[in-house]
């Protein structure tokens, strides 16, 4: 007999998206260009994420930019939110495009048309009683801040971000209670371009620039926590981590130590600063050995200590297995955070290893460490979907993936973990962050759009749509 899991009353079931991956309308409503608007789809994008030099210009003669039109959520949000409501969503995690609110990022006054757009979105969610969970910065920063200031290496971005965050809190204080500051903040360690807005030029200064940029984001995040609590009395502000439990390839102590080290640097360093309010002891040696000398202003450390986040949100797609000295044949392909192949796991078509127990491990480790509520704000299977002749999309592979991960959450809750909710990634098909393409799909709702930008944009319910609706209606009891 199948085991029945008990999710808490009020558990926030829903889905997650990011502005730059679905809105489109990249030059409408007074929006400025963002870094996401100049990143093309396909191999070029993967190379840029891996650290290739890039000139931050749009080159339409050579490349396709599927996010310029996205899935046109900007014009179709009512239709899409109605579909979310039909599935019974309790929560919708979305992001605000910074470049809609401050087109260049450094203006003194916001763009009213941009603010209005999100007013409409929040009102529409409210109509169905769907709680918005809003990411303030999700892989999208005004391009001007990249070109004129060099991205987050530059301390001036702290005050631009603070102004932007305060503008949002003032404007939406009666509409939004849950906020996340920076999407996958620790992702910057592997692909700084998306969230810090620069490609480190040389290996020698790579970590220096990344951690200086992160320090600025930590300070900006604490300032946002402070402002949110001052402006919105019942606000809850979370950090957002990309979490991949790190396994040792074998029991060789050198490899076990290496895994522990990688786990700390990748999964915990950012969380420790944002949740515990201080740099962990292990950071000191890591910085010393890697030539990182942070410029920390007077008052920064007090600020971090005083304004930690209220809860921890994270994305979980896969675990990661590491070996101190791997051979090239052992390396995984496709997995953007690296590692060696785990012989016990199957991988998605993009090389992301599928590991539901890893989610239970993640939840337990994070809760043991921080003792604050957790929220899984991204999880899902990127897959190629096929539309059958009768129009149906039978994505049983997606249902299987999600079911096993929901069970893992159910187990973690029994383990004693405090879990606020689950918003699976890409609840409606959207542009992939790593490939910049449409064909890597996560949705319960299919969108007719192809990698070359063609397609009618028509929405269709996949088999998983009906399955997830049932999961939500039984509060996870029937999977
Ligand atoms: C996370 C990002 C999302 C997202 C997701 C899936 O890293 O926060 O923006 O897209 O991963 O990744 P991808 O689109 O590359 O499959």
Features:
two-stranded parallel ribbon; binds 6-O-phosphono-beta-D-galactopyranose; 479 residues; TIM Barrel; 15 helices
Map the helices and strands.
Blueprint: E1 12-16, H1 19-22, H2 43-49, H3 73-87, E2 91-95, H4 98-101, H5 112-127, E3 131-137, H6 143-149, H7 156-172, E4 178-182, H8 192-196, H9 203-231, E5 236-242, E6 246-248, H10 253-276, H11 281-289, H12 300-306, E7 311-315, E8 320-322, H13 356-370, E9 374-378, H14 396-414, E10 419-425, E11 445-447, E12 459-461, H15 463-473
Parallel strand pairs: 1-2, 1-10, 2-3, 3-4, 4-5, 5-7, 6-8, 7-9, 9-10
Antiparallel strand pairs: 11-12
Helix pairs in contact: 3-5, 7-9, 9-12, 13-14
GO biological process, one term: carbohydrate catabolic process
Protein name: 6-phospho-beta-glucosidase
Organism: Geobacillus zalihae
Order of SSEs: EHHHEHHEHHEHHEEHHHEEHEHEEEH
How are the strands of the largest sheet arranged?
1-2-3-4-5-7-9-10
| Number of extended strands | 12
Instruction: Estimate percent helicity.
Output: 25-40%
Task: Compute the average pLDDT.
Answer: 96
Distance between the termini: 12 Å
* Class computed from helices, strands and strand pairing: alpha/beta
Q: Please, what is the CATH homologous superfamily?
A: Glycosidases
How many helical elements? 15
CATH top level assignment:
Alpha Beta
CATH architecture: Alpha-Beta Barrel
3D shape: globular
Radius of gyration: 21 Å
Strand content: 5-15%
List segments where confidence is low: pLDDT < 50 over at least 5 consecutive residues.
none
Give me the CATH fold name: TIM Barrel
The biggest sheet, with number of strands, parallel, antiparallel or mixed sense and barrel status, is:
8 strands, parallel, barrel
What small-molecule ligands were found? 6-O-phosphono-beta-D-galactopyranose
- Supply the number of structural domains: 1
């Amino acid at each position: 007999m199948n085991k029945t899991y008990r999710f808490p009353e009020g558990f926030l079931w829903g889905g997650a998206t990011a502005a730059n991956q679905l809105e489109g309308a990249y030059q409408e409503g007074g929006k400025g260009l963002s870094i996401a608007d100049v990143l093309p789809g396909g191999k070029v994008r993967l190379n840029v994420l891996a650290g290739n030099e890039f000139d931050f210009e749009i080159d339409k003669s050579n490349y396709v930019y599927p996010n310029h039109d996205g899935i046109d959520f900007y014009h179709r949000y009512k239709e899409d939110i109605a579909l979310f409501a039909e599935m019974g969503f309790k929560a919708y995690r979305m992001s605000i495009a910074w470049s809609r609110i401050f087109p260049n990022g450094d203006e003194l006054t916001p763009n009213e048309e941009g603010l209005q757009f999100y007013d409409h979105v929040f009102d529409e969610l409210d109509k169905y009683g769907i709680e918005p969970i809003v990411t303030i910065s999700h892989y999208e920063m005004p391009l001007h801040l990249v070109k004129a200031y060099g991205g987050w290496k530059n301390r001036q971005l702290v005050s631009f971000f603070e102004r932007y965050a305060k503008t949002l809190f003032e404007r939406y204080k009666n509409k939004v209670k849950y906020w996340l500051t920076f999407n996958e903040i620790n992702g910057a360690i592997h692909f700084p371009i998306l969230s810090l807005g620069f490609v480190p030029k040389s290996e020698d200064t790579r970590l220096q620039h990344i951690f200086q940029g992160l320090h600025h984001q930590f300070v900006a995040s604490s300032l946002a926590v402070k402002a949110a609590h001052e402006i919105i009395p019942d606000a809850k502000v979370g950090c957002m981590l990309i979490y991949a439990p790190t396994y040792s390839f074998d029991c060789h102590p050198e490899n076990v130590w290496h895994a522990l080290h990688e786990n700390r640097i990748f999964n915990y360093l950012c969380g420790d600063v944002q949740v515990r309010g201080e740099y962990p002891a292990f950071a000191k040696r890591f910085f010393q050995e890697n030539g990182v000398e942070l410029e920390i202003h007077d008052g920064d450390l007090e600020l971090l200590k005083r304004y930690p986040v209220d809860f921890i949100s994270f994305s979980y797609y896969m675990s990661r297995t590491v070996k101190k000295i791997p051979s090239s044949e052992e390396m995984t392909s496709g997995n953007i955070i690296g590692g060696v192949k785990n012989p016990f796991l199957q991988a998605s078509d993009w090389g992301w290893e599928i590991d539901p127990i890893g989610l239970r491990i993640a939840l337990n480790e994070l809760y043991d460490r921080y003792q604050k509520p957790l929220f899984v704000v991204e999880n899902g299977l990127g897959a190629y979907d096929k539309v059958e002749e009768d129009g149906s999309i039978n994505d049983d592979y997606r249902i299987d993936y999600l079911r096993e991960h929901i069970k893992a959450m159910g187990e973690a809750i029994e383990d004693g973990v405090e879990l606020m909710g689950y918003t699976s990634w890409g609840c409606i098909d959207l542009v992939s962050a790593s490939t910049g393409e449409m064909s890597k799909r996560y949705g319960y709702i299919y969108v007719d759009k192809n990698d070359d930008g063609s397609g009618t944009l028509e929405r269709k319910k996949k088999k998983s749509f009906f399955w997830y609706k049932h999961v939500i209606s039984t509060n996870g009891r029937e999977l």
